[in-house]
Amino acid sequence: MSNVYIIGLGMIRFNKYPDRGVRDMAHEATRLALEDAGLDAGALEAAFFSNTFWGMFANQHSIKGQVVLRSMGIDSIPVTNVENACAGASTALHLAYTGIKAGMYDVALVLGSEKITDKNKTKSLGAYAACMDVKNIDSHLEMLVKYSKTFTQGLQIEESSPGAGRSVFMDAYATFARWHMSTFGSTREQLAVIASKNHFHGALNPKAQYQQQMTVEQVLADAPITYPLTRSMCAPVGDGAAAAIVCSESYLRKLATARPVKILASIMGSGAERAFDGIDIGERLVKQAYEKAGVGPHDISLAELHDATAYGELHQVEAMGFCPVGEGGIYAESGATTLGGKQPVNTSGGLECRGHPIGASGLAQIYELGIQLRGEAGKRQVENARLGLAENGGGNIGIEEASMCVHILEKV
């Protein structure tokens, strides 16, 4: 089976684009990736397209990838449409990886594009609920409220009903954060340290939606969303697109000027029924990734983790094995996850600052790791970066993500 490499990366700045759509953002990201790889579109043998909400907002269902690619002159090749909530783009990469690994293709496009901003803000925020079990969403929220009543860290302020004026996922993350605070003694200040760190990283990233630094004090004083989360601890609504070109080892040998990054591991899985203190999906999948790559958590030079909120990063730092469970906040306070630290996390600014257009987010993580491993990250370059890890979760059923992908990339 062939080794698989990333040879092209393309990404537009994530932002709010009232005058842009899924199609034209995807076109730009694709052109950038092809240019980066030194290829023309005729070289592509397959494409995998990730999008979640185009059908909901503009009624384009079923053949999204074919519509996007045909409109820029790419046709005939097999196109696979991928929808897997926030893990859609990393799932598309996993499918391209498996296709090349199996010898089906030698070179493929992986593309994610998403538009979530809308004049109707309630529609934008309400769309996220589609990434849960909509038939049982009321009982799911009731379960979260019931669990919350057992925590020593309960709600500290009067709040509106779950999902009111915010994504329902913020309520889920807030519940998990309060559980962690009650169980391990983590604090709001530690969450603010994580958010402040990501704002520092985002300020160095010209493709980030938010490029303003914030102090810990400013994060804590920001508008409350749902306890313990403030606005700047949460990923914004936004739009964007990202793409990658992947190829086999035999194809790579034909390229004279390639700047490849090797995919050491590509692991995908689904959530399971468990209690709050059960084995987490991230723990399960990253063990498989480490075994496949032949490395351990402390070999990882940097990571892009799914931080839809600051608590998401705290939790995933633990799940990936970078520090003991219960010590994610302490690890952040130590400076280990900041540029210049032991193991920088979310050097792109993460979902909190780079932005989170769902169908593109997983590839934005890969873009960041790729340019870091090539040594092309400019002011936010991680010194001696050799191995990068991306963890991208999607949706929520019960206590954990409905889907997740973990990728480990290696400098060549």
From TrEMBL:
What's the top EC group for this one? Answer: transferase
Q: Which domain of life is it from?
A: Bacteria
Residues in domain Thiolase C-terminal? 287-397
Reported EC number(s) for this entry are 2.3.1.9
Q: Which SUPFAM superfamilies match?
A: Thiolase-like
Where does the record place the Thiolase N-terminal domain? Answer: 4-214
A GO molecular function held by the record: acetyl-CoA C-acetyltransferase activity
Q: Which Gene3D superfamilies match?
A: 3.40.47.10
Sorted keywords for this record are: Acyltransferase, Transferase
Looking up PANTHER family in the UniProt record yields: ACETYL-COA C-ACETYLTRANSFERASE, NON-SPECIFIC LIPID-TRANSFER PROTEIN-LIKE 2
- Tell me the protein's name: AtoB4
